[in-house]
């Protein structure tokens, strides 16, 4: 799916350029074409004129949240939870309640 940089749409220069491209696209239509083909042509002309005048929107690149430094925290949290599931006594509950916030804090600080 194409994403256009819509921040430029309110600029006067963009509007003029888009109107020129749009009018050129509409002038190239033939009356003898069937409706579906005419619609496809209009759609393509509008896309190309928007692409010329607006440009493409660049998606933000997020850094990966999980890396090798996060693995020990995750392993420790999983191990604590498994111990709690196997033997739900107060010691395993306390251990899980201590490990879980530490792991959460580590993952939050990584971002």
Rg value: 28 Å
Structural class of the secondary structure composition?
A: mainly alpha
Proportion in β-strands: under 5%
- Secondary structure tally, helices: 4
- Topology as a string of helices (H) and strands (E): HHHH
**C-alpha termini separation:** 28 Å
Task: Provide the domain count.
Answer: 2
Number of strands: 0
User: Helix fraction?
Assistant: 55-70%
Low-confidence stretches: none
Could you say which overall geometry the principal axes of the C-alpha atoms support? Answer: elongated
Average per-residue pLDDT, rounded, comes to 78
> Major β-sheet, in short?
none
Topology:
Blueprint: H1 12-27, H2 35-54, H3 71-86, H4 90-110
Helix pairs in contact: 1-2, 3-4
Keywords:
single chain; 111 residues; mainly alpha; 66% helix; 0% strand; elongated
What's this model, at a glance?
The chain has helices at 12-27, 35-54, 71-86, 90-110.
Description:
This protein folds into 2 domains: 49 residues, no CATH class; 40 residues. The longest helix is centred in the C-terminal third of the chain and has 21 residues. It is built from 4 helices and no strands. The radius of gyration is 28 Å and the shape is elongated. With 111 residues, the chain is mainly α. 66% of the residues lie in helices and 0% in strands.
